[in-house]
Structures are given as C-alpha cells and as structure tokens.
Amino acid sequence: MSPGGHFATTLAACAVGAATGHSWPLVAGIAAGGFLIDVDHAVDYVLFDGQRDLRPNTFLRYYLDGHMRRTVLILHSWELFALLAVVAWVTGWLWLVGWLIGGTMHLALDLVFNGRQTPRSIVAFYSFAYRAAHHFEAARLLGNEPRPPVDFRFWRAFFGAKDPQSAVLDSTADHASPRRRG
C-alpha cells in the first residue's frame, strides 16, 4: 500500500482508538504501528542499500521504481509480532497493544495491496526467516519484473495515484484526443 494510504488508514484507526479507548498511549501505539512501522524502509535504504540521499522525493522514487537491493524490513515480520504480542500480554502495556493493532492493520493492507506486485508468496515474504533464507535479496524475493512508470509528482506518488497518461490509449496523431496531441 502507498505511504499515503497507510497514513490515511492510520489516522482513521487513531480516531477510533481515541473515541473508544480514551487512552493516549493506545492511540500513540496505533500511530506507531500503523504508519511509523515503515521507518524500517529508511533503515534498509541507508544501511543495507547504501543510499545517502535522504530527500523524501528521492527516497520514495527509489522504492516505487523498484531499485531496492535488500529487503531486511525488521519491523515487518511475523516473528517480531509474535514476540511483541507475548510481551504485551505479560506486561499489559497499552502502547504496545496499540502498536500491535496498528501494525496488524498495516500488514493486512500490505498483504492485500502489495500481493499484486509480488510474484512469490506475499504471506511468506513477511516472515523474517523467509527473507533471511533468501539473503534479503530484493530481486529473489520480489522478482525483477520491470515496474510500470510512476507519475512522479510527490503527493500523487505518496498517495498511490496512478499515472493518468497510462490510462489513455495510444493512437496515431490524427485520431488522438486533444489531450494526447498536445
């Protein structure tokens, strides 16, 4: 799912958490699990792919164009969720319960939306052990199929909008719509 999609769904989940739970630690946990969980993409970008350009535009384009070489993604793993669920159960920490709620929502949305882009099992992909067994190599885990071009205006890309030009059929100049002739 797009970062903007995660942002919007996390805002909605936080609103529901605030209205029903009346607990700021719970709401903060939902926000962290629903949206801030993606900080591991930045860690992979810098530590494992050796990228140094930290401008949001460059970072987002790097991922959307499929340039990543390693997909460690420590926070996106079933194993971490299981460990944190045990810790939450034992301690009763409300912020961690919120993190698990937000993170579960995040991973569920990733399974639905990212599964279309992954040639192998998307459920297995979210296992840290599975990614480790494939040496965290993005090409092995995600395939090397070329990705369709992205209309890269930052906010459109952030919210996952499709390139409007790709929806228009190509035709000869004499039969093209005025929009395509321009």
Provide keyphrases for this structure.
mainly alpha; single chain; 182 residues; 0% strand
Structural notes for this entry:
- With 182 residues, the protein is an all-alpha fold.
- It has one domain.
- Helices cover 59% and strands 0% of the residues.
- The protein is built from 11 helices and no strands.
- It has helices at 3-21, 24-34, 39-48, 56-64, 78-91, 94-114, 122-125, 128-133, 138-142, 154-158, 178-181.
- Helix 2 runs parallel beside helix 6 (94-114).
- The longest helix is centred in the middle third of the chain and has 21 residues, at 94-114.
- The two termini are 33 Å apart.
Which stretches are low in confidence, meaning pLDDT under 50 for 5 or more residues running?
Answer: 164-182
Biggest sheet: strands, sense, closure?
none
| Helix segment tally | 11
SSE-based structural type: mainly alpha
Brief characterization of the structure:
This protein is mainly α and 182 residues long.
Helix and strand layout, with pairings?
Layout: H1 3-21, H2 24-34, H3 39-48, H4 56-64, H5 78-91, H6 94-114, H7 122-125, H8 128-133, H9 138-142, H10 154-158, H11 178-181
Helix pairs in contact: 1-2, 1-6, 2-6, 5-6
